[in-house]
C-alpha cells in the first residue's frame, strides 16, 4: 500500500525582481491511499503529475507530510522503498547506462545475492521475456526507441518490484511500439501507476487521478475522472 499523508512539495525560486528567494509550491497538499492494481495519472504539462509520480519511490522527497510504501517511509527508508517500487522514465536513455542490453539488465541485478554467471543468465532470461533476446549483445545505440523502452522496462522488472511507476513511458513512441508497451504494462502482475497523456490507456485503469496546479482535482473511476479532465482542458474548473 502506498500512502501519502498531507504531502507538500516546495522549491526555492529566485525573485525576478532581485529580492530574496521565494518558496514556491510544486504539489500539494495531497493525501492519498493507492491500493488499486492499475492507477492512471493525467494532467497538463507542468501540472505536477511527474512530481507526484516521483514521490512514490523517493526520487522526490516531501517538504512536509510523509509518503510510505508498506509502512516504509521514503525519506528514512529510501533504499528499501526503491526495492519495492520500480520507476520507468519517459526517455529510456535517462536510465540505460551500460553499452549493451545484457550488461544493463545485469547491472540492475547487482544488489541481488547472485553470482556473476547467475546474473548473466537472469539478464538473458529477462531479455528473452521482453522479446530482446536476440539483441542482448548489440550496442544499445543500435536499438530502436521502442526496443530501448522495452530494455528500460526489462532492467527494472528483472528485480521483481511490487509496484511499477511509469512516467509517460509511451510519449516518445510511435503507435506500434506504444501499443506493445501498453499491452505489456497491462499484463504485469505488479501494481502499476501510469502517468500518461494517452486517455485510451487511462480509461483502462481501475482508478484515475487528475492533477492540475499541483493538486489532485479529481479522483475516481475512469469515466468520471476523465470527464472532469476533459472539462478542465476546455476551461471548466472541477
TrEMBL record:
Q: Cite the GO molecular-function annotations of the record.
A: ATP binding
SUPFAM superfamilies of this UniProt entry?
P-loop containing nucleoside triphosphate hydrolases
Q: Which UniProt keywords apply?
A: ATP-binding, Nucleotide-binding, Transport
Q: Which InterPro entries match?
A: AAA+_ATPase, ABC_transporter-like_ATP-bd, ABC_transporter-like_CS, ABC_transpr_CbiO/EcfA_su, ECF_ABC_transporter_ATP-bd, P-loop_NTPase
Top-level taxon of the source organism: Bacteria
Which residue ranges does the record assign to the ABC transporter domain? 2-238
CDD domains, alphabetized: ABC_cobalt_CbiO_domain1
So what family is this one in?
Belongs to the ABC transporter superfamily.
Q: What is this protein called?
A: ABC transporter ATP-binding protein
- Name its species: Cellulomonas alba
